[in-house]
Amino acid sequence: MNDLHPIPVILLTGYLGAGKTTLANRILDYWLAGSLRPAMVINEFGSVSIDARLLDAGREPLFEINRGSLFCTCTQDTMVKVMVQMAGYRPPRDTVLMEATGVADTATLAGTLSIGPIRGRFRVAQNICLVDAYLFPKVCETLPVVPRQIEQASAVLLNKTDLVEPEALAAVEETVRRLNPSLPIIETRYADIDPAHLLALSDGWKSGKAQASAPPIFAMQVTLETEGVLDRPRLAAFLDSQVSGLLRGKGPVSLREGVYLVEWVRQGWMRMPKPGLAEDRNRLVLVGSRRSAGELQERLDACQEKS
């Protein structure tokens, strides 16, 4: 691949829990059904990747970049290595799908893809931002990165529209249009959209900011891992005690009934069966205000079922 034929990149952005992984699976299925050769980059703020375990990437290469945003200098070396490897595939990859962490400031993407070894080898075809219609009013007011993601987008999926009343939905759409007046806005539930329609939208991406030098200061992450089967009531009590200041919580856990994905997106904790996940450890990533990792690890360990 040379400068005349850069690999197109589809970037998925949006706040934590907006539906990026669901949409990524839809796009990957569509590409694979059309015999394309995609590659996938998934980026999570925590040190343990949770969303990568939920992607049906098939035989296609999937790369994980954790411990910071794709667009921060703290992950620059890893990002360059991944992109160099991707550009060297033979036969070449037809396209790249990138799922950014929910707290990423995507305004720095231009600087990220212009670093020496990968300059000219990739181009941003689209920057698709998912907006959680239910949570958007609150997070837009409290987290500056949320409106910036919309300002930099080439299209918005206004997702989870079934959770809000028509007047509230209209207010969210008005705010989105004020942030980016020319933006195509598509209303969805469960990120259910025909990928062919979404990917055919015209490219409107633009950016001119340099890379950030540090992760977002408003979010801290704690990664917890423990072995064994967890006791449901003790785990529920532990999770409910973490609500204050929590922006995001997610991870697979083993209960007596099987493997579940527990997830917090401000509406409360949800527990979903994931029989396809073969987990040897319980993993939980918490993103939010500062927490004592040591104390939390002890409390999670105490959730193990007694033998």
Task: Outline the secondary-structure elements.
Elements: E1 7-14, H1 20-33, E2 38-43, E3 62-65, H2 76-87, E4 95-99, H3 109-112, E5 122-132, H4 136-142, H5 145-151, E6 155-159, H6 166-179, E7 185-187, H7 195-199, E8 220-226, H8 232-240, E9 246-255, E10 258-264, E11 269-273, E12 282-288, H9 293-301
Parallel strand pairs: 1-4, 1-5, 2-3, 2-4, 5-6, 6-7
Antiparallel strand pairs: 8-12, 9-10, 9-12, 10-11
Structural write-up:
The protein is of the alpha/beta class and 307 residues long. The chain has two domains: 7-199, P-loop containing nucleotide triphosphate hydrolases (Rossmann fold), CATH 3.40.50; 220-301, Hypothetical Protein Yjia, Chain: A,domain 2 (2-Layer Sandwich), CATH 3.30.1220. It is 26% helix and 25% strand. The strands form two sheets. It has a seven-stranded parallel sheet with strand order 3-2-4-1-5-6-7, sandwiched between helices. Strands 8-12-9-10-11 form a five-stranded antiparallel sheet, with helices on one face. Strand 10 (258-264) and strand 11 (269-273) form a beta hairpin. The longest helix has 14 residues, at 20-33. The radius of gyration is 19 Å and the shape is globular. It starts with 6 loop residues before the first strand and ends in a 6-residue tail after the last helix. Residues 208-217 have low confidence and may be disordered.
